[in-house]
Amino acid sequence: MSVRGERLVQGIRECHIDLLVVQLLETSPEFRDWFLPIAADEDRCDVYFGSACNVFGSDGRESDIEVGFQTPDGDEHLVLIENKITASEQPDQFSDYHKRGEQRVHRGDWDEATICLIAPERRVTTQLQAKVDTVVFYEELRDQLQRIDHDAATFGATLLTYATEKSHSPIDDYSATVSNILWTTLDEIGHLADFEVIQNSKKQLKFTSNHPDHPNFLIYSVYIDEGGERGLTRIRLQLKMDDENERRRIAEALITDLHDHSPIFKEDYQPTPDKQNFFVKTVYHEDLRSFPDGVVTAASEEMTSLVQATHPIFCQRDFSTS
To answer: What pLDDT score does 1 carry?
Structure first.
């Protein structure tokens, strides 16, 4: 295979960014002096102690990067860094980060500990940002590398550009696409209620509302049927009920409600009252070339609109009669 004209890295991974950040911390005082005050929320770094990748704590959980330094006041400060391009959040991941930091301070290893997230800007939702102390966006890292004098600056800026592109257009990366659709949607609808994720798998996500008036048998779903430009994604309303006659009765009543509510539902959504997925819209990927972020933007906007329109209807309706 010829390397002429090929991308520097064919498949960008989080480990590439981990190694880049550690290399820059270890070899570039200019980068260190810029990065550490932002990541640690300190005025400046007086003495740099060092950094490392893939550090496992006593709890068996991993910090992507850890870096230590001394502040102008003489405090020894540890920064635990989580790096995310497209990966979904693991259970209790950030609470465990905080616990690890607190344990290291409690046993006297460090005076302070900060939890920092590095990620593409569009990957960082309001909910995710609230779980960490500080955030440094890939775009900020890339822009800083374009300003400093370092042998790895151009290469590093290119890697960060690839990573940012991956977070924007992961059409063929099913699990990343589903996760991005989920976080983008939840960021937009969080004011309506507390939403519970039921499934976040390779090709499908499902969630429901914990609003006290919202029936728990009504599920919101996104399913990537096929990837790539010729693929399609389905936006669906689902009724999870064992009684098929009752399910059909409620589906028919809800379809009528939605058709009465807006002509868009009549035009864009296919009613299938005899199926569990009783209301379905198909988004064809080949129609998404005008969307800057492709499937993620189109599917999350469609799901957001669907939830915003239907959630109040579902919360107000009496399901005891048709």
So the answer is: 37
**pLDDT at residue 293, as a whole number:** 53
Scanning the structure block, which residue is given the tokens 């959504």? 269
Dist. CA 194–CA 169, nearest whole Å = 28
Q: Which two tokens stand for residue 54?
A: 């893939």
Looking at the fold, whether 19 and 158 belong to one and the same domain comes out as yes
Q: Which domain holds residue 251?
A: 174-316
Last residue of a domain, one of 140, 168, 196: 168
- Strand-pair category, 76-83 with 112-119: parallel
The b-or-e profile of 139-175 (16+ CB within 10 A means b, else e) is ebbbebbeebebebbeebbbbbebbbebbbbbbebbb
What's the confidence (pLDDT) of residue 170?
38
The whole-number average pLDDT for the span 197-205 is 81
Q: What are the strands, taking DSSP E only, across the chain?
A: 47-56, 62-70, 76-83, 112-119, 134-137, 195-200, 204-209, 218-226, 232-239, 270-271, 277-284
Q: Are residues 151 and 37 in the same domain?
A: yes
Q: Are residue 230 and residue 300 in the same domain, yes or no?
A: yes
Helix, strand, coil share (%) of the chain residues, nearest 5:
45, 25, 35
3-state secondary structure of 27: helix
Report phi then psi at 25, rounded to 5. -65, -40
The number of folded domains in the chain is: 2
Q: Model-level pTM?
A: 0.55
